[in-house]
Amino acid sequence: MSTDEQAIRQMIALWHSATARGDVETVLGLMDENAVFLVTGQPPMRGRTGFGQGLRGLLKTHRIESTSEIQEAEVSGNLAYVWNHLVVKVVALAGNSTVTRSGNALSILHKQPDGQWRLVRDANMLAPSS
Question: What is the bridge-based pairing of β-strands 98-111 and 45-46?
Fold first, then answer.
């Protein structure tokens, strides 16, 4: 496994752990300012600012538990893609409500001049699961 692939895997693990801690600033630091998120049935979510607002709003009433199993990771120069199988649980802070979604996601990453990998595009195909 290349150094870049190891760095990408660590970035993904950090994304999950920061999300679980509610550390929005760390999550936002892992994405490009102009990141685009594609989600089934929704218009594209454009930019780090919109993503951050949505995540902060959700974390006021819920916590998020997520895991991923990397199916494929490929690096070519300063671009990479990662195909993940994700499981995301959104757990209400009050009550017993949990919504679980799972499925595939395809992410495109860009290596920055400082050597850090950041997410620039994400196509998320999660669906409700039990």
Answer: unpaired
* Tens digits of pLDDT across the chain (130 residues): 899 999 999 999 999 999 999 999 999 999 999 999 999 899 999 999 999 999 999 999 999 999 999 999 999 999 999 999 999 999 999 988 999 999 999 999 999 999 999 999 999 999 998 7
Instruction: Give the domain extent around 48.
Output: 3-129
22 phi/psi in degrees, rounded to 5? 80, 20
Q: CATH number for the domain including 73?
A: 3.10.450.50
* Element (DSSP H or E) covering residue 14: helix 3-21
Contact 38, 44 (CB under 8 A): yes
CB atoms within 10 A of CB 28: 17
Sheet with 117-129: strands ordered across = 45-46, 31-39, 117-129, 98-111, 79-92, 62-76
The total number of structural domains in the chain stands at 1
d(CA 84, CA 62): 23
pTM reported for the whole predicted model: 0.94
